[in-house]
Design a protein that fits this description.
The protein has 102 residues and is mostly helical. The protein has one domain. The longest helix is centred in the C-terminal third of the chain and has 16 residues.
Length: 102
């Protein structure tokens, strides 16, 4: 029974949308997570504090769904280990600070 619950939990985690309930994301928590796990990588690619990743003219994110997907991809690529709720916090922070997507 315990193994079944673990497998079920992993399945739910894998299928959870990254930016679900974006209005419920906590911007303050998102900033903390972002600053800890994202700045070093972005700064190595774009210089300074890495914020050009979000403000460049050819940025790839044009919807909340794309933002959530991008945060999830970065989480997986750098091994931050965020849960879906934490991804939503980071996406909410990025949206409020840089993207302003509706």
């Amino acid at each position: 029974m315990k193994i079944f619950l673990i497998i079920l939990g992993l399945g739910l985690y894998a299928s959870a949308p990254a930016f679900a309930d974006s209005d419920k994301g906590d911007i303050k928590i998102g900033k903390t997570l972002h600053d800890k796990s994202c700045i070093a990588c972005h700064a190595s690619k774009f210089g300074e504090d890495g914020s050009k990743m979000y403000t460049r003219a050819d940025h790839k994110v044009t919807s909340k769904q794309q933002l959530g997907s991008r945060v999830k991809t970065c989480n997986n690529n750098v091994g931050a280990g965020w849960f879906p709720e934490e991804e939503a916090h980071v996406a909410a922070y990025l949206n409020a600070t840089y993207y302003h997507l509706k």
